[in-house]
């Protein structure tokens, strides 16, 4: 899933970015309200993690404008404003949930998973294909019923492929789905992740479509 973090505190932002990326999400970071508006105009996000006390434009204004334009991404407010009035204002502006700073990263991850499940309309979104099973909520993968241990990038790659198993994804598309702004992407990063993932789930599970990209094998 692609997330937008809107946070002006660099220390908090770096911590949240690291946590969300370990969950397998691609995360972009906007440092102020104006940058957040420009980012949201792209309409590519599944979830927005939004601070309220932002430079250049307040988070509530950003949220109001986003919803007025028809923005449908889930929004989780992360803020030190803990009054009931502030919480009501955030929810009335179109937020889906509210988390008070300082917060526990495990709770943030759990709320993020819950909100993404609600947005997809699935209580238990489990993807299956050719003996593979991927559970985003539990962050678990099995092959023929046996658990497979994947690092976050491998998990993110498999999730992209298994959500649309018949589709061929180009290298550029995979990079866009798996990495956020500012993350360094090596020229052969996707090839390395594909090779590593093949070793764990089977060399025949990921098909190379020469000159185009990758897809999962067709069911037999």
**Proportion of β residues?**
15-25%
Number of helices: 8
For the secondary structure, the number of strands is 12
| CATH topology value of the largest domain | Rossmann fold
Cα distance, first to last residue? 29 Å
CATH class of the largest domain: Alpha Beta
Strand order of the largest sheet: 2-1-3-4-5
Would you identify the regions where 5 or more consecutive residues have pLDDT less than 50? none
Please estimate the helix content.
40-55%
The CATH superfamily of the largest domain appears as Response regulator
SSE order and pairing:
Elements: E1 2-6, H1 10-22, E2 26-30, H2 33-40, E3 47-50, H3 59-68, E4 74-79, H4 84-93, E5 97-100, H5 105-120, E6 127-129, E7 132-135, E8 140-143, E9 146-148, H6 152-163, E10 169-170, H7 171-178, H8 189-201, E11 206-209, E12 213-216
Parallel strand pairs: 1-2, 1-3, 3-4, 4-5
Antiparallel strand pairs: 6-7, 7-8, 8-9, 10-12, 11-12
Helix pairs in contact: 2-3, 6-8
Pfam family, one: Response_reg
DNA-binding region: 124-218
Domain OmpR/PhoB-type: 124-218
Question: How would you describe this structure to a colleague?
Answer:
It is built from eight helices and twelve strands. It has 220 residues and is an alpha/beta fold. It has two domains: 119 residues, 3-Layer(aba) Sandwich (Rossmann fold); 90 residues, Arc Repressor Mutant, subunit A (Orthogonal Bundle). Strands 2-1-3-4-5 form a five-stranded parallel β-sheet, with helices on both faces. β3, α3 and β4 form a beta-alpha-beta unit. The radius of gyration is 18 Å and the shape is elongated. The two termini are 29 Å apart. The model has no long low-confidence stretch (mean pLDDT 88).
